[in-house]
Fold this protein.
Amino acid sequence: MEKLWFPPLQEEDPLITEKIKYSIAFLFSLMLVGLALHFNTLEEIWQGSLKILISPANLVTDYFKLANVGAAFINAALMIIKSLFIIRSTKVSLSGPLFAAIFTIAGFSLFGKNLFNSIPIIVGVLLYAKLTRTPFKNYLLSALYGTALGPLVSEVAFNSGFSFFTGIFLGCTAGVIVGLILPPLSRHFASFHKGFSLYNIGFTAGIIGMAFIAFFRAYGIEVDTVYLVSHGYNQPLSIYLYSLFILLFSGGIYLNGGSFSGYSNFLNEDGRGGPDFMERHGLGLTLLNMALLGVLTTTFVLIVRGELNGPVIGGIFTVVGFGAFGKHVKNVFPILLGVLLVGWLTSTELSSTSFLLTALFGTTLAPISGHYGVIAGILAGSLHMVIVTNISYLHAGMNLYNNGFSGGFTAAIIVPLLEVVFFHKNNRKNKELIKPIINTEPVEDLEKTKNSPE
């Protein structure tokens, strides 16, 4: 089949490529605004937005249910624009990790993050950069992903019994403290899972959230987890999601010269440590990969008859975003399969939001299947399914990246065992290769070696 003709790729000019990246992110936010106006009036969106800003937001608080669909999507759009402004102000390139951060923030802005509870954490990271006299751009990922602890800010501000202004002050103070300690801790904890969990900030945020909750409980303050989810939006939202992925796919194909050329090499990436796919494989293939991940995860949700609510769409957006930063269909699928297998064997309700969140965010362990193979990926997904259901108590929903927290523990358990298995397997292979060489050595050479004075 003759290859389609396309004009020279814009990717050859870094400045044009950077403009394309920003344009894609900005258009993503505009699509969310358009979707918001489809669901609700401006007045409804305004009232819902105020409710989002002044409500506790611990896991799982679906903004579709808490406020309304329009307000949730406007919140996500504003969070994208805020993130782009911060990235632009540091004058760094919009890399794969940052692209993943934008989609992740958009997703979690449907169930837990908002302008109020995210800004103090970012200020805390900025303060850390000032105190250590290092550029803020070095901690940009910590600032963006660290907003996972936004519910801690909202909980202290609006659900701890303080007066309105006292609560806001204490909530912001808690957020700044989180931002101050997040960068050094995230660097340290990366060695815990050896890069086999992509949500390293999620693991760090879980540790910080656990410490705060332990402090609260020591003083008799109990924080209960929340399960507030919506339903009934599958038809319009599935049309929106598939339309978004078609646009990403079309853009990827266009930028890649009208073909899938190079995608087989893309799939050979194991994903460990979160490689920047944009830098390694270009914008075209990365967009193509993101689109395919979106189709895979959305179809997975619909096949098990799940609901496309705020948290579930947040999970889909996160997987799509990490299509630029460590995930692809080959290393994600075994994790989904492992979670699905344990869910089926334990009679878990596969259509439930909690199960779908485990499956979608459990793909943080994609590097395990990428590095060790399909069976290892299925085992990792299975173990993750068991661990994640028991770990949210430790941080009481203060860490939105609960699967990143449990994924770190899953990787820490399974990776050393896999290393032992593969080490012995490789040793056996090496011995089998060496043995024939020793046996075929000429007898006279052996005799010479035996009689040698050495």
Observations:
- The CA atoms of residues 110 and 310 lie 5 Å apart.
- DSSP finds 21 helices and no strands in the chain.
- Confidence is low (pLDDT under 50) at residues 1-11, 438-454.
